[in-house]
Amino acid sequence: MLDRDGFRPNVGIVLLNQKNQVFWGKRIRTHSWQFPQGGIDRGESPEQAMFRELHEEIGLKPEHVRIVARTRDWLRYEVPERYIRRDARGHYKGQKQIWFLLQLMGQDHNLNLRATNHPEFDAWRWNDYWVPLDVVIEFKRNVYQMALTELARYLPRPNHHNRYLRSGMRPHRRDEAGAEPPTEPQPES
User: Fold this and answer.
1) pTM of the model
2) What does the longest C-alpha to C-alpha distance in the chain come to?
3) What is the per-residue DSSP string for the chain?
4) How many angstroms separate the CA atoms of 17 and 102, rounded?
5) Are the beta carbons of 102 and 65 closer than 8 angstroms?
6) Do 140 and 10 touch, CB atoms closer than 8 A?
7) CA-CA distance, 73 to 96, in Å (whole number)?
């Protein structure tokens, strides 16, 4: 299904763990790393396609994730002719994508690269949010940069509890009557 300009509708998925690291998949039998992505089928909304691709590519179900944000508009990239099948040359130009930022609510063991008979990835890892874009195939780099930049403002704030704070820096607690807690006895002079 192509639009009138020759772009196939597609979704891209940026999946975050609790440390705001992103899922990075290695394409099967290659040395290429990328985010999960896939085409939108006729009659599917971008969100429906995202959940289908999420399951097909990495085995996650809707209950394993929370949608944090999505890009406002389509982001496009053209595919160089050498990567286009001969029968599609002339009318297929590339992909137009809606990108979703998801928070993993499940665990790493919920990820399953063999959820279907046609796996896309043969390895995966968590990577810093600003993935090394130089390892992404060159014609996708600009779209990755645009998607990560637009979605970055929605990154959940990490919850840092510093359990090593000295007690003198913690706020005082009051007892039920509203009185300050007793202070340490001072040595008599």
Assistant:
1) 0.81
2) 95
3) ---TTSEEEEEEEEEE-TTS-EEEEEETTSS-EE--EEEPPTT--HHHHHHHHHHHHH---GGGEEEEEE-SS-EEEEPPGGGS-GGGTTT--EEEEEEEEEEE-S-GGG--TTSSSS-SEEEEEEE-SS--GGGS-GGGHHHHHHHHHHHHTTPPPP----TT--GGGSPPPP-TTSPPPPPPPPPP-
4) 9
5) yes
6) no
7) 9
Tokens of 18: 């609790």
Instruction: Tokens 């009557």: give the residue.
Output: 177
**For residue range 135-161, what is the model confidence (pLDDT) as tens digits?**
888 999 999 999 999 999 999 986 655
Q: Which two tokens stand for residue 145?
A: 């940069």
Beta carbons within 10 angstroms of residue 16's beta carbon: 22
Q: What is the pLDDT of residues 84-139, one digit of tens each?
A: 988 888 889 999 999 999 999 999 999 999 999 999 999 999 999 998 788 888 99
Query: How far is it, in rounded angstroms, from Cα 20 to Cα 98?
Result: 20
Q: Which two tokens stand for residue 104?
A: 């993993």
Q: Inform me whether the pLDDT recorded for 186 exceeds 70.
A: no
Q: Which two tokens stand for residue 21?
A: 């690291």
